[in-house]
Amino acid sequence: MANSQFSRRKFLTATGAAGCAVLVPSFIRAQTRSSAPIKVGINLPLSGVFAQVGQNANIGIEMYLESVNYTIAGRKVELFIEDETVQVTTGVAKARKLLESDKVHALLGGVATPLIYATAPLVTKARTPFVVTVGGGTEITRPSKRNKYTVRTSYNIWAQSYPFAKWVAQNVTKSAYIFCPDFAAGKEYAEAFRAGFTEAGGTISGGSFAPLASPDFLPYVLKVAETKPEAVFGFWAASAAVRYLKAANQVGINRSSKLLLSGFAADYDTLPETGDATVGALSMHNWNLDLPNAENKAFVQSYTSKFNKPPSYLQLFGWDAIHAVAMAAERIQGDVEDKEKFAAAFRGLRFASPRGEMIIDPETGDTVQNLYVRETVAGNGGLPTMKVIATLPKTVDPYANKT
Questions:
Q1: d(CA 330, CA 333)
Q2: Cβ(124)–Cβ(96) under 8 Å?
């Protein structure tokens, strides 16, 4: 997943000329404009702690576009790719460039919750559809920050953590410790898990946070282990998940306690480095490698044949985000220059995804999708795998209209 796969701008030749719209009738201008490329901006991290997140999501975007010959609604696609770095100041500057200088028709991006929130006013001012591609910050689809230009195809923290916590309390244990990274998404995950777990009759035995970029989680995990928790819930992802799980394995807390994880910590991008550290853990995710639907079989086969390894949720997130752009553009026959009509076309979308049916709620702009509870099992002479043990259908934010 090296950055060399992606140029800062990837230009694709469009059929027809688009530079002769001066002093011609309006219907000819419309025809000329509609033959120009659909410009899609991508603002994901390609460096820093979440570099592999953005790099792999970009691969999924490219995979989908390759499957449709880089053509959406009869128009070629032109990608403008930036590195949002997860830093709010940098990410906002990159988003502003894509919207104001490159004048993209749609913006894909959003990993860090604060950056998603900071991007919303920009897309509202530019009246440009913004598809939250990876992040799960809840408020972007609640009344406080909801806007008609922003939709989400990734996941919602509360739509994951809250129903998973209730399921754990009802089926696994009534006592759990919360250990999450000390940043916005980690705190949202902790809050949502606490709410769901206690409402289902569970008790939180303790909680703590650790800096996301800490090079060594061992001191923090040792303190968690000292409390002898029955179970430990944690939201971790990418390289931070690897460091956490290695520390948990070193201390032995993954054997003395039941690990409860976000699917991002137990997935095919982290397994090569974590090995058996997650065996026996329970995790929740909106996708699993062996889901039996036709779209997933084709997606997995396509990626595996190209890269000689299984995909992760990251490529899937990129795939579904650009798929939503394609569906919305098709809905309006490619007239993406009509910003209001294009933004409205995302609302109420339904399409088949490798993770199952995807719905974009017409009111909130949030994704409605299944949640899969998975158990990590030892591999047969290879890496562990995740086995789906329960499906929670069509999960949503329980407080979507909370003000």
A1: 5
A2: no
